[in-house]
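Hallway conversation turned thread

IA: we were arguing at lunch whether anyone had actually written out ABC transporter end to end. Turns out nobody had. So, for the record, here is the sequence (644 residues) and right after it the C-alpha cells. Reply here if something looks off.
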Amino acid sequence: MAGHAHRASLRGGTKDGAESVASVFRQHTTLLVTGVLLGLLGVAASLTQPWAIGKLIEAAGRNESLAQPIAQLVGLFCAGALFSSLQAYIIGRAGENIVFDVREILTGRLLRADLTAFGKQSQGDIFTRTVTDTSLVKIALSQSLAQLIISGATVIGGVVLMFLIDTWLMLITMSCLGAASVLSIALARKLRKVALENRDDTGDFASDVQRVLSALPTVKASRAEPREAARIGRLADKARRSGIRVNAFNALLMPSMNVGTQGALAVVVGVGMSWVARGEMNMATLTSFIMYLFQLVSPLVMFFMGVGQFVQGRAAIQRVDELARLPQEGGGTPAGQASMAVGPLPGQRPAVEFHDVRFAYRRGKQEERTPVLKGVSFTVPARGLTAVVGPSGAGKTTMFQLIERFYAADGGRVQLSGQNIEALPLDTVRGLVGYVQQDSAAMRGTVRDNLTYAQPHATEYDIQEAVEMAGLTSVIAQLPQGLDTELGDQGSGLSGGQRQRLCIARTLLQKPAVMLLDEATSNLDSDSERDFRDVLRRVSRQCAVIAIAHRISTVIDAEKIVVLEGGRVRATGVHQDLMEHDELYRRLAGSQLHAGPGQVAPAAAPVPMEPWTPPPALAIGWPAYAGLTEQTVRLRPITNEERW
Ligand SMILES: Nc1ncnc2c1ncn2[C@@H]1O[C@H](COP(=O)(O)OP(=O)(O)OP(=O)(O)O)[C@@H](O)[C@H]1O
C-alpha cells in the first residue's frame, strides 16, 4: 500500500523527475536487500570451501577418515548453489518490479506532459528512453548493483582470509591487483562517457526510423527511399561506432583485471613453492591460499563487469530521469484535478468567451515566440453554430487548442460558460469540450474502440445513434466485421472521409457542451456534407458548435461568423452582413469557401431555437441543457426524459 501511495504521489506531482528512478529503487530495497543477503550467504559458503579443502588435504595427509571433511565440503557446495540461485531469482524479480514501476511512472508522465514541452522531443527518442533505457535501468539497479555488492564482499572476504593465511603472499597479490584496479577504474570512467554517447546515438537512430515510417507513403511518392536509407544508415553507423567504443572499453575492463590476477597467481605459485621447498610453509596452506586466489578471479571479473553495466545503466538512468522531468499539464496534479468537484456552470452565459487573448507558440531550444493570437475577443452562444473563417495560418486551429486547454493563453482570458478555463479542472474542460481535429485522428484498434474512445461505457443504443448521425451506418454495414473490424495505424483501412465521420461520431457520442469542428467536413463528399449539415443543425440546438469552415454551405447556416485574420478578429456577423461589409469575407466566400450552385445567394435565416423533437431513431440522447453543468455532462447518467 505504501508503495502504491508513493507511486501515486510521484505520478501526481514530482517537481523534479530526477527523483523518480531513485524513488522507485528505494521502494524495492527490501527485496533487493533480501537478494543481497542470500548472495552474501552464498559468498560465505564459497569462501569456506578452500578452508574445507585444506582440512580434507590435512586429513588425507594424516591418514584420518575423510568422511566428515567430504560431507562438509559437499554441504558447502550445495549451500553455495542454493543461496546463489535464490539470490539470482530474487534480484531478477526486484529488477522486473523496478522496470515495471519506472515504465508505469514514465508512461503516466508522458501522457500528462505539457504539449509545448512534449512537442520538442522526438518521438523515436522518447520510445528508446521508455523501452530500451528502462531495461538498462533494471540491469543497473538490480543485477549489476547486487553483483557489485556480492562480488565485492567475496573479494573483501577472500582478501581478509588470505591475509590471515599469509601476510607476505597477500601483499604480493595486493600489489598486482592494485595496479590492475587503477587501470580498470580509469577504463570504467571512460566507459560511462561512451555509453552515454551510444544511448544518445541509438535514440537519434530510433527517432529517424520513426520519422520515416510515420510518413512512408510520402517517402515513396517523393522517391526518397535511397536518400532516407542513406540518412538512416549514417545514424545507424554512428550508433554502431559508439557501440563499438562501448564494447572496446568493456572488452578492456575484464582483461585488465585478469592480467592482474594471473600475474599475482604466477608470483604466488613461484614464491610459495620455494617456501614449501625450504620447509617454511606447508603444502595445505599454500593450496588453500592458491584456491582463494582462484576464487578471487571470478568475483573480481564479475565486480568489474558489474561496474561496466552499472556505468552504462547510469547513463540510461540519466536519460530516463530527463524524460520524467518533462513539464506536466495543469501543474502536474491530474489526480487531484479529476476528482475536484465543480459547481454548476451558469446556463445563461455564452458557452465560450475570448477576452483579449494573446498567444505565441514556443519554438526551439531558446523558446523563441512568434505571436499567433494578438488580442482575440469574441463570444460563442450556448447553443447554435458559430463558424470561424479566415486565411490559412490566421490562428483558427490555435484558438481551438486554447479552448481544449492544450496550451495556456499568454494574456487575456478564455472562459467556458462564464468561468475562466484556467480555474476549471482539466478533466472537466475536456469533458465539456468535444474536438474533431483537422487531421481526423483515428487509431489502431476496432472501429468500436475508436468510436467509444472518449466514452468507453457508451451503450449500444448511443453508439448506433452516433453512427447514424455521422452518416456511417452504410460504411459500417460494408465492413467485414462491422463495428468490430480492426483498423490499422492512424485508422488505415478507412477512407479519409470515413475516418473523418468516425471522429465526428466519436465526438457526438461524448455529448459535449461545446463541439469544436476543425474543417470536419473537408473530406466529405457533397451528399455526406449535406447530411452532415442536417446533423449540425440538430446538434447545434443542443450545444454550442464552433466550426472552422472552408465551405460556404457550412458558413451560411451559422448564427454567427467570426472572421480571423493575422491573429486578430477582423469582423463578426452573419453571412449577409459580412458579404456586404467585409472585404476579406467577400473574397473568402468567392474563392476559399466553396459554394455549391445556388447555395450562396440567399442569406440563411438563423436557425430557430425553440425545442425540436427529432425522430426517435436519430435521438442521440443528449442531455437537455439548462446550462453547462458538470453534473449534466459528466457525472450523471442521462435519463430517458432528458433525451431529445
Ligand atoms: N505547434 C506549433 N508550434 C509552432 N507554431 C505553430 C504550431 N502550430 C501552428 N503554428 C503556427 O501558428 C500559426 C497559426 O496556425 P493555425 O494552425 O492556428 O492556423 P489556421 O488558421 O488554423 O490555419 P489553416 O487554415 O491552414 O489550418 C501558423 O503560422 C503556424 O505556423
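OS: looked through it. The chain has a mean pLDDT of 79.
IA: good, adding that to the notes. Residues 92 and 452 are 39 Å apart (CA to CA).
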